[in-house]
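Table S2 (continued). Query chain:
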Amino acid sequence: MRRLRVLLLIHHYLVPPDDVSGVDTSTQTWRTEYDVLKTLRDDLKHDVRVLGVADELTPIKQAAEDFKPHIVFNLLEAFHEVGTYDQNVVSYLELLRLPYTGCNPRGMILARDKALSKKLLQYHRISVPEFAVAKRGRKFKLPKRMDYPLIVKSLTEEASIGISQASVVEDERRLMERIQFIHDSIATDAIIEQYIEGRELYCCIVGNERLQVYPIWEMFFEKMTDRQHRIATSRVKWSSKYQDKAGIMTGAAEPLPDGVMERLPAMCKRVYRSLMLSGYARIDMRLDGAGRVWVIEANPNPQIANGEDFARAADMADISYPQLIQRILTAGLRWEPERMGQ
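Corresponding output:
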């Protein structure tokens, strides 16, 4: 395997310490950054330089000139602490003509806007829930085609930010309250979706033109009461204490209705290509009681810490964590921005 010079871009406050002796790295905020760095450097034997990025782009250019990397491994999820600015950093890498890992700017823009992505998927005849957008500073009226229950989310934020049990609403009063909550607390427009009762499924994909689809994953809610909605709230995703209390776990999907498992990989590839994604991504879906699969959203550059869902799904396909990181690198090296849209 060719030894590469890899410039690892990390948020400045997530740069792992040089000495982790006596530290449980699996519980640290910089867990993903540490796992990727250790794997690139120690397992894959690449020459790695870590760059902690704050709110300046100039250090990226300086590091590129000094280090002359073959590729940038991009772990930035925001810039200036604004999530929607992450695609601008990737655009900057393209302007510098630096190969990079993860999704291209166009795919990030299309996938992040949950309404725009749903319109594109509808055009390609992929099932998505009915939806409407409540813009900040404007009155909202629920379209007649939609009915309760509904779920209210941020239009552009990821990682379940702003999602809780209260996000699922059953009447107009709670709908308006939740919309106002999104507007005030997250400062984005809100998207209102038809709530799909059912099973939470995920599909992890790596690649550009040629796509590698890993085994379908599922989130299980074993201790939740019938009065609770089985949705991936912020606590469900990020609180280990709550996960233990509510019996939240993930793993290979349990048996699905006849024909569903066979159709899902092709459908998820269509989603990936329809939204012009590249690098790696996770497709989130719901399976309703009638056996119909609904695409909820696509997530470019999802969590890739060792032992998390993406890595575990790859492991189910007999792809070790170092092999997964190398495949993400290879996809980045093969991505050709100038071919976008051809």
